[in-house]
Amino acid sequence: MSKAVIVIMGITGDLSKRKLIPSMYRLLKNKKIKDFVIVGIGRRALSVGDIISGSKKFIPQPDAAVLSTLEKKISYLQGDLDDKRTYGELKKRLSGYAKEGLTNVLFYLATLPGHFDPIAKNLQSSGLNKSSKGWVRVVFEKPFGSNLTDAVELNASIKKVFSEDQIYRIDHYLGKELVQNIAVLRFSNTVLEPLWNKNHIDHVQIILNEDIGVEDRGGFYDKYGAVKDVVQNHMLQLLALVAMEAPSSFNALQIRNEKFKVLQSTRSVDAHDTILGQYSGYSKENDVKVDSNTETFAAMKLFVDNMRWQHVPFYLKTGKKMKEKKSLIYIQFEEAPGVLFKGGAKLEPNHLVITVQPSEGFYMTLNTKLPGSMELTQVKMDFCHDCTYGANTPEAYETLLESVLAGDQSVFVRSDEVEASWRIVEGIIDKELKVRSYAAGKDPKAATDFIERDGRKWFV
Ligand code: BG6
Questions:
Q1: Residue 1's pLDDT is what?
Q2: Segment 332-353, tens digit of pLDDT
Q3: What digits encode the pLDDT tens for the residues 201-243?
Q4: Distance (Å) from CA 175 to ligand 1 centroid
Q5: What is the mean pLDDT of residues 363-376?
């Protein structure tokens, strides 16, 4: 792992408090990273002690010695990210660290998306976007853009400042353990790969249900909504990993090439194949417009128009204030012919469920007989990740930070993938589509009817 200065732009924000600092703590504790310092930039007057205590409640059973080491590695720079003087001061600090041998610099833009372009330009005009002594990398949080045109412009603009190999576009789902396992499950098991196509798979469901509402992010969320917040990124990345061809090797170029090909083959989703909803009470949330038409729920049907997947529906469903938090991928295989059993009984199709969270693992259902009779029943072949490896899976952000520091772009999203994903949802964003109200804990009825019209059911 290379030595580096990690500059967190927006260290006083929620992301930094909840995810970045706790991830740095775990990396330090697990001795995955040692030679680094953090420069945190924020507008408020703060001490490093404030930063540490703000994150403490997001670190289960913190070890005081590790926290104190982390604290000593952080310095705070109070400044406005739109102000050139902030970059002048940053430059001075970075050259001080360079003299101590810390010549690599990682800029982490933990800010609202509207700041990405101005920050990139400021880094360029202060000469911080490249270095002859070490590497310079930049991490952009999602959402990257807010529609196709915007994303194309943003990509073009930041590529004038950084080369693509310096750019790491985060989608934290790609750092989740079970998401990283999808390709391994698919391509290292001969029992699965031959069946993984339109001849044997009836349909796929990708579900990202959350029990929480918008909490204190109403102002941000109300401008985006579920499609921009999670479908365009997390859910389409899951779709790409489920549907892609085997890459010729597991490197960033090949994996991203294959994901891009899937996204490129995915038909733009039609408003007729989409159901949007809003939980009741949403418009009373803080910073949400009283007459808001923003969706907090989205269900849709997509098709990947290629040889492997033609005519296989991919159903996507996500919602806030659902019954329980659950992210999963459900693969339903074709039904076996029932002719042998009870005069042609309808058999339950096999299915494979990859549970991303909160429980991690996967299982496959098989038909078997009940003891003492020829009645059929389904049993599970179950892999429970925590039961096998203990509940100590690295957090997504931890894995991603480690990957950026190692220069591994395979778990970050390339510009063409981002643009292809925006193209897929173009028909259902920024339009006046009907948004149905739903009670907390329940899907809108229209979403249930929508899949049932196809003779199928939501898995959860
Ligand atoms: C974020 C969205 O990207 O993902 C949030 O902005 C959402 O609205 C979150 O809650 C879900 O992530 P996770 O890891 O909790 O499933």
A1: 61
A2: 999 988 777 766 667 889 999 9
A3: 999 999 999 999 999 899 999 999 999 999 999 999 999 999 9
A4: 13
A5: 91
Residues 6+ apart with CB under 8 A from 243: 204, 262, 304, 308, 309, 314
Report the domain count for the chain: 2
Answer for the pair 434, 447: CB distance below 8 angstroms, yes or no: no
Question: Quick check: CB of 16 below 6 Å from ligand 1?
Answer: no
The CATH number covering residue 327 comes to: 3.30.360.10
Given a contact cutoff of 8 angstroms between Cβ atoms, the answer to whether 357 and 385 are in contact is no
Q: Which atom of ligand 1 is nearest to the CA of 233?
A: 3
Q: How far is the CA of 391 from the centre of ligand 1 (A)?
A: 21
Please list the alpha-helical segments (H only) found in 100-215.
Answer: 116-125, 148-159, 177-187
CA distance 407 to 405: 5
Strand partners, 108: 8, 139
Q: Which one, of 243, 216, 304, 234, lies nearest residue 268 by Cα?
A: 304
Q: Is the CB of 229 under 6 A from ligand 1?
A: yes
Whether the pTM exceeds 0.85: the reply is yes
Shared domain for 293 and 385, answered yes or no, is yes
Mutate to test the pocket of ligand 1, among 140, 208, 216, 230 (most ligand atoms within 8 A of CB): 230
Of 172, 234, 272, 385, catalytic: 234
Residue 280 lies inside a defined structural domain of this protein: yes
Print the domain residue range for 265: 174-391+414-452
Q: Is 154 within the bounds of a domain?
A: no
Q: Over the stretch 41-72, which tens digit does the pLDDT of each residue have?
A: 999 999 999 999 999 999 999 999 999 999 99
What confidence category does residue 376 fall into, taking pLDDT thresholds of 50, 70 and 90?
confident
* String of DSSP letters for 416-447: HHHHHHHHHHGGGSSS---EEEE-TTS--HHH
Is 272 annotated in the active site? no
Domain boundary among 125, 141, 157: 141
Same domain, yes or no: 115 and 183:
no
pLDDT digit string (tens) for 144-202? 999 999 999 999 999 999 999 999 999 999 999 999 999 999 999 999 999 999 999 99
Could you tell me which of 346, 349, 341, 332 has the C-alpha nearest to residue 369?
A: 341
